[in-house]
Write a structure and sequence with these properties.
- It contains eight helices and seven strands.
- With 254 residues, it is of the alpha/beta class.
- Helix 5 links the parallel strand 5 and strand 6.
- Helix 1 packs across helix 8, helix 3 packs parallel to helix 4 and helix 4 packs parallel to helix 5.
Length: 254
């Protein structure tokens, strides 16, 4: 093991790790020396764990539907049972759901998006924090979004959930400022993921509109988000907690 790696010897848990940002983060944690519990509701996440093992790392896969509290509890406890501890957690699973103006969103869609993007993060923290406190420390990164900082017409439920993630992150961070558990959020901008590509495939004009809002004229990559997440979980970020780290190429600064 490379002792100079950012998270050498640590155990990391990543939700929503089958594709996109979650997959990139799981692979980055492994490259930087961590043992990784790869988790997703999609069992294709098993291939991510296999990729890590083939590269000489240590990883396991555990299926989890983060909208189910009991499955989150089993995931966190199972990670500790498998690897012996939990040092880093990236609570990443989420998604925008069906869009529409605020008054057009159905109550069912509202509830589903809040459950997936906000309540799931609350439940992850509920089980991760006590374990890390007992260990004497740890680092958690919650996936928020640029949508947690600005209005997103057509996605009121998603924006509300991501704004909520930031409030939850800041509050939990202050509550744990003396426990050794650091809690931050990552706010990705428009990132080239399978989910974004599927959205763009519906209408090529979507890509044009998104790129027009990008000062650098391009989408971000999952790897660029992963670099920030792993750094926030490393000891090099030891004085960083309660932060909303925006990685969006300057999009919301326009």
């Amino acid at each position: 093991m490379n002792s100079s790696a950012l998270v050498a010897g640590k155990v990391a848990l990543v939700t929503g790790a089958a594709t996109g940002i979650g997959r990139a983060c799981a692979l980055a944690f492994a490259r930087e020396g961590a043992k990784v519990m790869v988790s997703d509701v999609d069992t294709t996440g098993e291939s991510v764990a296999e990729e890590i093992v083939k590269a000489g790392g240590e990883a396991a896969f555990r299926r989890c539907d983060v909208t189910r509290q009991g499955e989150i509890e089993s995931l966190v406890l199972g990670t500790v049972e498998h690897f012996g501890r939990l040092d880093c957690a990236h609570n990443n699973a989420g998604g925008p759901g069906q869009g529409g103006a605020a008054h057009q969103i159905t109550t069912a869609d509202w509830s589903a998006v809040i459950a997936l993007n906000l309540t799931s993060v609350f439940h992850c923290l509920k089980y991760e924090i006590p374990i890390m406190v007992e260990q004497g420390g740890g680092a958690i990164v919650n996936t928020a979004s640029g949508a947690g900082l600005i209005a997103v017409p057509g996605l009121a439920h998603y924006a509300a959930a991501k704004h909520g993630v930031l409030g939850l992150t800041k509050t939990a961070a202050l509550e744990n400022a003396r426990t050794g558990v650091r809690i931050n959020a990552i706010c990705p901008g428009s990132v080239d993921t399978p989910a974004l590509r599927a959205h763009i495939a519906k209408d090529p004009r979507i890509a044009e509109r998104i790129l027009a809002s990008q000062p650098g004229g391009r989408f971000g990559t999952p790897d660029e988000i992963a670099e920030a997440v792993v750094w926030m979980c490393s000891d090099r970020a030891s004085f960083v907690t309660g932060e909303s780290f925006v990685v969006d190429g300057g999009a919301i600064s326009r």
